Amino acid sequence: MRREPTLAEKLFWKALRKVEIPGSHFRRQAPFGPYIVDFVCHRHRLIVEVDGAVHDLDHIAARDLERQTWLEGRGYRVIRVPNSQAINDPYSAIEKILALVGADTPTPNPSPQGGGEP
């Protein structure tokens, strides 16, 4: 069942939408099998989870590991972003996404030499 996004998720989404990530279309609060993931890009098989302090509790961490194992078993990579990073420095997490997506994205051919103005 979907829930209201946390402040950290809202701020991360706002930052994520400002950055052009080649070939990416992220969905938020997306159903995925028996789960709802915070953010997913199916083209790059990438899931981003924004985690609050509750995820440090042993029983929650164990459930997160089970969930992550299930998601990775379907060929997706999972990036976990702590709330503090999503709120205070979301672009550092987005840089990690760019690095992962860049490895999946073909590099365009370079411009021909001499094509610019003198």
UniProtKB/TrEMBL annotation:
<protein>
    <recommendedName>
        <fullName>DUF559 domain-containing protein</fullName>
    </recommendedName>
</protein>
<dbReference type="InterPro" id="IPR047216">
    <property type="entry name" value="Endonuclease_DUF559_bact"/>
</dbReference>
<dbReference type="Pfam" id="PF04480">
    <property type="entry name" value="DUF559"/>
</dbReference>
<dbReference type="InterPro" id="IPR011335">
    <property type="entry name" value="Restrct_endonuc-II-like"/>
</dbReference>
<dbReference type="InterPro" id="IPR007569">
    <property type="entry name" value="DUF559"/>
</dbReference>
<feature type="domain" description="DUF559">
    <location>
        <begin position="1"/>
        <end position="100"/>
    </location>
</feature>
